[in-house]
Amino acid sequence: MKDTKVVQLADRMPRIQKQSGKKPGKKKENRRLVLYLSVLFLLVLVVVYFRSPFSNVSGVHIKGSHYMSKEAAMKIAGITYETSYFLINPADAEQKLQQQPTVAKAKVSKRFWHQVDIVIEEYKTAGYVEREGKLVPVLGNGRMLGALPDRKLPVSAPLLANMEEEAVLKDLAGELDRMPAGIFRSISEIHLEPKPSDPLRIRLYMNEGYQVMATVRDLANKMEPYPLILQNIKPGEHVLIHLEMGAYIERIGAEGKKNEG
């Protein structure tokens, strides 16, 4: 009996070893199958995500634009809230924006979470002229924009009066564009007051309450002494500042200040 049992156990050993040798292969195949299914599942998730509203732009932030509304800027840049965040090409959007007459430079950037930032650098507004009862912005490059729907100024800049000739207006705009910001902000109005010896003579009305006689030619450089001239004027003193050929102060009476010219 003992010998018979030993033989039967021995007969089973190869079969057991053979069966046990198959198990590692099956486990490896199972792991591989799980890996394939996981990758497939992730791919499906990615496809579903990109085709769903969750991948769209969730916010657009615009800075520096005075003449272009947020909606207009988004339309020009080709960006909507239905646009996939990952399909936005910042360089392409910047190029489209910079083709606009008011835009000197545009920067488009993307950030977390699905946010788009648009920073616009506009050409300087040199002033405003009146045409048919409406104000028309004039840029520093001499280009005139469309008339404003109301008399509300989007950017602080002087009113330019009696400027009918386009060439004169363009030259003046170029000078104002080059003028230091501090002096430019002091100008309230500029009136063209030509005379036989100087058809480009202008009168500047300053926010400080003074008037300046100058000429369009080289105006930016001729206005540079203005801050120093103010230091030599006593409070309450009525003067007319001349910057045509040189720089000097003409003291006048209260009534003469209004009529001097």
Automatic annotation (TrEMBL):
The keyword Signal does not apply. Residues 55-123 form the POTRA domain. Gene3D superfamilies: 3.40.50.10960, membrane protein fhac. InterPro entries: Cell_div_FtsQ/DivIB_C, DivIB, FtsQ_DivIB, POTRA, POTRA_FtsQ_type. It is a single-pass type II membrane protein. Cell division protein that may be involved in stabilizing or promoting the assembly of the division complex. This is Cell division protein DivIB. The lineage of its organism: Bacteria, Bacillati, Bacillota, Bacilli, Bacillales. The gene is divIB.
